[in-house]
Amino acid sequence: MVGRLASQFDEFRRLAEEQAALRRVATLVAREASSHELFAAVADEVLRLLRVENTLIYRFEGDVAVVVAIGGESDPRLQSGLRVMLDGDSVAVRIRRTARPARLDSYDHARGDPAAFARRAGIHSAAGAPIVVEGRLWGALFALSRRTDPLPPDTESRLEQFSQLVATAISNAEARTEVARLVEEQAALRRVAALVAHGEPPATVFEAICTETARVLDAELSWLLRYEPDEQSTLLVARGLAPMPVSDGTRFSLAGENLASEVLRTGRLARRDNWDHATGELGELARQTGVRAGVGVPIVVEGRLWGTLAASWGRDGPVPPGIDDRLAQFAELAGTAISNADSQDQLTASRARVVAAGDEARRRVVRDLHDGAQQRLVHTIVTLKMAQRAMRQNDGRAEALVAEGLAQAQHAIGELRELAQGLLPSVLTRGGLRAGVEALLSRIDLLVTVDVVPERFPPVIEASAYFVVAEALTNVAKHSQAQHAEVRAWVRDGVLEIEVRDDGVGGARSDGRGLVGLDDRIEAVGGRFQLKSPSGGGTLVSVSLPLPL
Fold this sequence. Notes:
alpha+beta, 51% helix, six-stranded antiparallel sheet, 549 residues
């Protein structure tokens, strides 16, 4: 009777000790103690509770177990940070394989590094429980015994209670870390986005992108590469802790197998968990920097593959999870910055061309007036003065001089009309687009079919549409070798649509001087200009001009 009571008392005391130990660990979890403090406390609590010589907490990294906490007897072979290959047969190997509690009552005949390590440390038997965080196996908690008798049968279940608290603490810490990471990453993205929104030069944006990505992705190196013609590339920016043996602006061949060449070939994300088999100049550059793993994402500008943004780490892969999408956000900002800069450059160039075209038009008007109508009018005045003198002197040449002056005046009027027609035909002003197009056809030696709406439009729209048709038909007559052309204009959904089509040889280029000027004019009124001119397939000029509400 006394023995049974003593046994029950011992059981109650054991349970009380166990619950007290669990409460102490739970308190640490609740107050968000550091991982180091928590792991050390769990190792010590389990050591006292199970009365074993040593306790261990392992973190699994692939096929390697890393010691993160030790409790018990001091042994130089048991040190925090020790890495053990998970091969052969041991408690750690069994847990890694099954994610379930395991035990080994003797290491005498067990194989592999963990078993050999246990024998060297004098460990005879062991039991362990997995630490499972958010459904994934994170590591394991172990009780190690140097005694020859096996550990009690309930050791694994008792270890599980502590391993679950460790898992909760790790999950909470990871959640806090993830929130902090997201906050930091969003702040970095906002800083880069602000540079883009303020129209900072692409070089400034690229510098910020590589600096921020290296920092928030914990990468040794972040670099941005622009693709060039002929399988070449330019390293625009490289930032990070890893030494870069070349300067910004260095050109590299894209030959070989490496991140940049793979992105160029596929137009998609590329990754390498190590650079051992990378080839080409960029593969060799990666080895010189000492990076071991990397991921590259495409930079796309208005549907065109422009370059790649990459991040690299100094350790073998796999590349950290979630990196792809995070890096892609910075690549999108790079693409936006490039697109904005291109648009600004195009706008500046377009404005310059508009100004130059206006200056050239004024010079041409002045030249034509001076060389044509002005000269004829001067000749007319001189001739009429000579006729006036001849009349006073009763000279018989008076009538001939008047006739010559009249002829010169008529020629001057004709040249003035022709000049005015080139600026803006009066028939367009009076009769609208259809009348202007029909008048235009009288000066073009080509069969043209016309289908133009008769309604009137604002003067700027009519003038733009007229010059589109005039330039397009002039090109047809001069260059296309066409037999027939067609001009169509209609209104659809508040937009004036214009098409000029011919059956000529095609091959027209949008960068021709006249067509560039048309594009600038159309863009100035918010329109859209398109050219389709396949070789041997004729030419189609399409213009859309939005009409004011």
